[in-house]
Amino acid sequence: MRAGAAAAPIGSITSADRPIGVFDSGVGGLSVLRALRAELPQEDFVYFADSGNAPYGERDDAFVAQRSQAIAQQLREEHGIKALVVACNTATAAAVHLLRAGHPGLPLVGVEPALKPAAARSRTRRIAVLATRGTLASAKFAALHASLRDEAEFLLQPCDGLAAAIEADDATKIRALCEEYTRASGRFGSKNGQIDSLVLGCTHYPFAANHFAELAGPEVALIETGEPVARQTRRLLGAAGLLRTQGVGSITLQASAGQAALHATATRWLGR
Ligand code: DGL
Is 90 exceeded by the pLDDT of residue 10? Predict the structure, then answer.
């Protein structure tokens, strides 16, 4: 990890050499950063974990929107970011429209639960969607769900406490909550009437993927959003002429609390 790059004035998204900002309520967005690094190895990233205010998923929209706007502003002022990835389903649902309005011209990518890819691959047409309460209650998610209602049956499961348990690295609680929410979703498998696809609709949940894979069984596909988000980021940067084409990228990590824990988790999950 290195110290932050010198800041560029806000509003000047002119150089491919500026870093890409990525944020989440905590460590969950590292699952997206992992995919971004694989897709864009030449880019510099500044990752901000709002761990002092996590979890977002059980808070109200106004709070999540206010934090998202403050973080975007900070990333632009301190780091002169050339693009922003909102690596949090809950923050995307609550604030992506406000961020777009407040930062016109800044390439911006959000994440949403991968209902479309799940509908495209499911054979049984029964799909479990695990996400935070905030994401599942949002108007943005309701619109996505409504647009795909004819494609498959989506079984929506809010997972209170799971992001917080992952944030706290509480292995016992993570396992217990994965068991509870997998069981509550229904019967998994590849036969008619069974759930054959499980959407990890919160960026924290890929860090519990081993539990979900074991509990749902080998016939069930776990679907997350890191790779499509990384490809979309590449497309937007390319279209804006802001892709970095040489060099080896870096990662700068910042947190509103628990900086040491963020570094430890990044070391574990990003192989750093
Ligand atoms: N990782 C986040 C998401 O994708 C938020 C989890 C939380 O803070 O509750 O929704």
Answer: no
